[in-house]
What does this fold into?
Amino acid sequence: MPDALKLDLSEKLYAKAVELIPGGSQTMSKRPQGYAPGAFPIYAERAKGCRVWDVDGNEYIDYLMALGPIVLGYCYPAVDHAIVEQLKKGVVYGLLHPLEVKAAQLITETVPCAEMVRFLKGGAETTTAAARIARAYTGRELILNCGYRGWADQWTAQQTTPNARGVPECLRNTVRSFPYNDLPALEAILRETADQVALVFLDPVSATEPDAGYLGGVRELCDRYGVLLAFDEIVTGFRLAPGGAQEAYGVTPDLACFAKGVANGMPLGVVCGTREIMQTAADLLISVTYGGECLSLAAVCACLEEYRKGRVHPHLWRQGEQLVHGFAESGRRHGVPFDCTGLAPMACPRFTHPNPEFNADAWSFFLQETAKRGVLIRRGGLLFVTFSHQDEDIEHTLSVVDESLALLADAVRSGNLKDRLHTKPIEESFRRF
Ligand SMILES: Cc1ncc(COP(=O)(O)O)c(C=O)c1O
It folds into this structure.
């Protein structure tokens, strides 16, 4: 193993990128400053299964997985086959295409709340459509929201968003935030505002698991106060279970949004819900040129057919659980404050030292050492395991994590952690939790 990763081409490309692309990337969470700059790859060249190769020729077992969309693994044969076959027939048409009907049918058969479905592209577009449908259906404007819904104006205007430059001030009070896992706090807001509230919108689960009865309690409060409930299943959808968190927890919202994980990386957003509410969308201005783009629709059909065979989700849970246990065990063995929160298919590793500066350095060192040994993990993000992570990949990952934590423990004991960092300072521009 080399002393440091060779990343010359990545670094050179990124230097050019910042001259051409404001911020250097299209996705804030992919900016190299948020990983271990100087010791972590920046540009991918290709990927297959659970592996990715960077432009400098280094190979890694990947847990970034495009930040969530890849559930089956890169270049999954059944999905790629469906895409290639459709490509031969055309990508998008002026006419409608039968795949719209087939994909909608499969989703309504798979997702508990889905009686009708509309297709869009990104997550923000999808959550924005859900908001419009809820407002039109109820004739009310206020949305009570907990969590990240994407970059669109109304979500960025929410009181808790740190950087709302460029967003009209008048949107500020159209979305009000509420804390997760706190039913009394939600009820207090509903007591005060229910007659203005169109929708309660939340991620059913992210890095923090819902307390027992929390999601059912939210459902019950929404019913009692006569407001709609939407789940943002953009991360949980098709990852926790074929029917998402609503299936996993047995709580059915009125509306739900899916985007990542729907089509194994192809860009597709889904807003769905009960027939009565979704029917409102028939004459709303929710209209996108690429909603009926057929490569993504062919991909979603292939994915759903795979998910419905029943092998994918038990695999994600099993492999995720091995990672969660293995990470915590290595942390304990080496006396490093390190574990995972959240659910196994989307666990969230974290350093838990009371000193945030220690945690920041520990992350830089950990990413530097794991990347050097061929494993990509996201600083403070979710660990996305796929159907393509086989036992030997998990075993290798756990040995890399163990070795890296042993080195971290040694650096801490020797008092030279900062000297052993080959990274530039980090800049975390964006964090969802
Ligand atoms: C829960 C959740 N909702 C919405 C979004 C926005 O999705 P997109 O980036 O595709 O607009 C994200 C993206 O990370 C997300 O995680």
In short: The two ends are 34 Å apart (CA to CA). The mean pLDDT is 95. The longest strand covers residues 197-202. Residues 121 and 267 are 5 Å apart (CA to CA).
